[in-house]
Specification:
binds magnesium ion; Glucose Oxidase, domain 1; globular; 8-stranded mixed β-sheet; TIM Barrel; alpha/beta; 16 strands; Enzyme I, Chain A, domain 2; single chain; binds phosphoenolpyruvate; 3 domains; 8-stranded parallel β-sheet; 46% helix
Length: 583
């Protein structure tokens, strides 16, 4: 019977597909489709790994046996018997075969999918002894996966690939309790048509990456991953934040129609690509792109962006098991982004890890999970705590600037002392390159305004920086004391709270007075419901994911900024600005 769960709408559109439930701990298993002729090879790879694990277990059993009955640990022997039994379990082997043969999943994906199916059955068992066998099954599967890691698929393990085989033409949607931003990045070129997670806020970084993929997504759907079962038909309504499970034929037809309407709308918007973003009263508006990887430059150009307003460089640093990219690797990545933008400016933000962007999946430092990482060692604080690492990044950016226009952007500054230290390190990086005779370019220096303390001391920032970029995601989080990643307080995350609007208006006005550039690069910039207000507050530069550019441009083309300016002042003075937003 069909039922629905509600969450937060984070990425537009409708996706209809079969559910793939993934536990986040197993997320770094590759997900890709194999060709029909590769199906037997995948099954063989799995059989080989299973036999190898069985041989390992038998070897341990033999050595226990050799120790003699008095030394052999009876519990261990019994456990090994259970593991051997699970290895041969028909539900596991037949299930895995099913996913490979019927769905063309690669072996690792098939194995973890079947694990989820059986694990749920264990969870529902009354008998605590049997329930505990779930942990054994997980151990056995992890052992098989470890062995398979050494035996790569002929298709190329590690790179999720879109399906190319008509037999696997069923769209798939991914359902997980949680996905880290690094996990999401891994799925960027993947097979999934949509995402649902139980946790997360609208501007959590997981949601941001989902938005950059331009596929429907719902976060904060509470217990969706528990309620939905592997292979269920699911509709994700990314506009309304609704997930429909096991939809009736009528619902399927209704959402299928909406989906086609969305496609027609996209097609219509694509015609605006080469239209200049100019308002009815002739104001030129700069539309820039937010990117996470150098390769995203292609999408930015395709959407008609006139530059990159925010390259979130931290995505180069994530999911690498603590091994950070060195100067050379970073330089190559930044250079690729700069060259990819073909002479248009690229704003590279120095690393902003911490909070909901941990370097690795283990989100927090051991023993510190009582702390709120959003208030901790994050962004520029993290960089200043490790000057050698920071200098390497600064040198890499300065070197990339020799290949095209680059702006250097510093996140989360709040203190004059941080500004001084940062500028001193930029200066030192320049000197180091000069001394080594390494080519570097000239960069414009910018600061992000994302902490109220910064928004209230704009003259200090304007004294030291060439331009400012307002990070509304964090500015809202810190002004309203709302964790942006916590769905439990997402109803209080209010971009038009009077306090937020005053900080925004003040920052934009002071930049204009001093003749300095100012843009907004938070999610607010790509939200069409906010375009008129931001224009009315005087904003002329917006940075957003490429997929949002054309819709925002459409709004801009219909606006008259002189009229909006008066209206924005009324909104700014209102007790409840949200009530005036549709005027
Ligand atoms: C912001 O805070 O608005 C911003 C653009 O930075 P991030 O979302 O990466 O924290
Ligand atoms: Mg931020």
């Amino acid at each position: 019977m069909s039922f629905s769960v509600h969450g937060l709408a984070v990425s537009r559109g409708i996706a209809i597909g079969r559910a793939v439930i993934v536990a986040s701990s197993r997320i770094d298993v590759a997900h890709y489709f194999v060709q029909t002729e590769q199906v037997d090879g995948e099954i063989e790879r799995l059989r080989h790994a299973r036999n190898e694990v069985a041989a390992e277990i038998l070897k341990v059993q033999q050595s226990l046996h050799d120790l003699g009955p008095s030394d052999a640990h009876p519990e261990l022997t019994a456990l090994l018997d259970v593991h051997l039994m699970l290895l041969q379990d028909e539900q596991l082997t037949n299930g895995v075969k099913h996913w490979i043969v019927e769905r063309h999943y690669n072996a690792e994906w098939a194995l973890t999918t079947q694990l989820e199916v059986i694990a749920r059955q264990f969870d529902e068992m009354e008998d605590p002894y049997l329930r505990e066998r779930k942990a054994d099954l997980e151990q056995v599967v992890e052992r098989i996966l470890r062995v398979m890691r050494g035996v790569t698929s002929p298709v190329g393990v590690g790179q999720p690939r879109p399906g190319q085989d008509s037999a696997v033409d069923v769209p798939l949607v991914l359902i997980a309790h949680d996905l880290s931003p690094a996990d999401m990045l891994q799925f960027k070129q993947s097979v999934f048509a949509g995402f649902v997670t139980d946790v997360g806020g609208k501007t959590s970084h997981t949601a941001i990456v989902a938005r950059s993929m331009d596929i429907p997504a719902v976060v904060g759907a509470r217990s969706a991953s528990q309620l939905i079962e592997q292979d269920d038909w699911v509709i994700i309504d990314g506009d309304a934040g609704v997930v429909v499970i096991d939809p009736s034929p009528i619902l399927l037809a209704e959402y299928g129609f909406k989906q086609r309407q969305g496609e027609v709308e996209r097609e219509r918007l694509s015609r605006l690509k080469n239209t200049p973003a100019v308002t009815l009263d002739g104001q030129k508006i700069e539309l820039l792109a937010n990117i996470e990887q150098p390769e995203d430059a292609v999408g930015a150009l395709k959407a008609g962006a006139v530059g990159v307003g925010l390259f979130r460089s931290e995505f180069l640093f994530m999911g690498r098991n603590g091994k950070l990219p060195d100067e050379e690797e970073q330089y190559q990545a930044y250079k690729r982004a700069v060259e990819g933008m073909q002479g248009l400016p690229v704003t590279i933000r120095t690393v902003d890890v911490g909070a909901d962007k941990p370097l690795d999946r283990v989100a927090q430092r051991a023993g510190e999970d009582h702390l709120n990482p959003a208030l901790g060692l994050r962004a520029i604080r993290w960089s200043l705590a490790d000057p050698a690492m920071f200098l390497a990044q600064l040198r890499a950016i300065l070197r990339a600037a020799a290949h095209g226009p680059v702006h250097l952007l510093i996140p989360m500054l709040a203190h004059a002392s941080e500004i001084r230290q940062t500028l001193a390190l930029v200066h030192r990086a320049r000197e180091q390159l000069e001394a080594a005779g390494v080519r570097q370019g000239v960069v414009k220096l910018g600061a992000m305004i994302e902490v109220p303390a910064a928004a209230l001391t704009i003259p200090l920032f304007l004294k030291h920086f060439d331009f400012l970029s307002i990070g509304t995601n964090d500015l809202i989080q810190y002004t309203l004391a709302i964790d942006r990643a916590d769905e439990a307080v997402s109803h209080l995350y209010d971009p038009v709270h009077p306090a937020v609007l005053h900080l925004l208006a003040n920052t934009i006005a002071q930049c204009h007075e001093q003749g300095k550039g100012v843009s907004v690069c938070g999610e607010m910039a790509g939200d069409v419901a906010m375009t008129r207000l931001l224009l009315g507050l005087g904003l002329r530069s917006f940075s957003m994911h490429p997929s949002q550019i054309l819709a925002v441009k459409q709004q801009i083309l219909r606006c008259d900024t002189t009229r909006l300016q008066t209206w924005a002042q009324t909104v700014l003075a209102a007790e409840d600005p949200a009530a005036l937003m549709t005027d």
